[in-house]
Amino acid sequence: MNEINPEWIQNRIENFFGYGNLNSPIWFIGIEEGFRVRDRYQNGIDLLKLRFERTYNQNSIDVVGGMEGVSDHLKWYQNATEIQDTYKRLIQILLQWRGQPIDDSSVLGVFNDNVNGLGRINSDNAILELLPLPNPDLGQWIYEEYAEGDLDFLRDRKTYQKSVRKERVEGLKRLVQEYEPEVIVFYSRSYVNEAKKLIENPVLHNEEDTELYYHFSSGKTHLFVTPHPTHRYKLKTGRVPDDNDWTTIRNAIVDVLNNN
């Protein structure tokens, strides 16, 4: 049953990119916001529908304050006692840049920080997504019931990705041109071709060794394309990136932030 206004879906595709401060020096860009189907209905409220209401006509909102009432989302960000590995790697970059200890306690402290935490509207960072619609995982698709008229491309995940990818890249590029972040960390090597399109005429800085990450720049903005922190991207040796590799990535990013 179509409980979400199709216009809200189209609006989110065109406008909403994530959470945090677009005027900040560093943006983190992932592929897709997650969503647990089993958590959709709570106390008679359709929490997926509420997500679309909260993000309507917005490019970015506060990851907590902007999502009032979206309880399945807020439970991960309010008084958290543990943190996803993906966000852990991102926060470690922030901590090193801020000159703070890089330990689990400090990571959790940033995650729970109401002012300068990950994705807060007045913070020094933003966390954005290439694809617009919250979805459980690569193996599921929950929007086929809305595949009518102008939204016919929602009939399956593959068609959806193909249909919105170019528009989303262009939307992110417009935001990059408007806000000129110093550093973008795009954490998916699988989408390096899309990532490169976010900046004009990208110059590759580490051409001789791109196995671990890519470092591009254009004007004031540096773009790092890294492995996803939790996906098992394999190096030539057959192993996945470990703590030492992520330290190498982090050092390269922070060096640019400190000297840009």
Helix content range of the residues, please?
Answer: 25-40%
Structural class: alpha/beta
Number of strands: 10
Largest sheet: 8 strands, mixed
Average pLDDT, all residues: 94
Terminal CA distance reads 51 Å
The total count of helices amounts to 8
Radius of gyration: 18 Å
Strand/helix succession? HEEEEHEHHHEHEHEEEH
* Tally of discrete structural domains: 1
Q: What percent strand?
A: 5-15%
Low-confidence stretches: none
Strand order within the widest sheet?
5-1-6-2-7-10-9-8
Shape: globular
Protein name: Uracil DNA glycosylase superfamily protein
Architecture overview:
This is Uracil DNA glycosylase superfamily protein. The structure is a single chain. The chain has one domain (6-259). Helix 4 crosses helix 8 (243-259). A hairpin with a 2-residue loop joins strand 9 and strand 10 (221-225). The protein has an eight-stranded mixed beta sheet with strand order 5-1-6-2-7-10-9-8. Strands 3-4 form a two-stranded antiparallel sheet. The chain is globular, with a radius of gyration of 18 Å. It has 260 residues and is of the alpha/beta class. The longest helix has 23 residues, at 157-179. The mean pLDDT is 94. The protein is built from eight helices and ten strands. The protein starts with 5 loop residues before the first helix and ends with a helix.
Descriptive tags:
260 residues, alpha/beta, eight-stranded mixed sheet, two-stranded antiparallel sheet, 8 helices, 10 strands, 13% strand, Uracil DNA glycosylase superfamily protein
Brief overview:
This protein is an alpha/beta fold and 260 residues long.
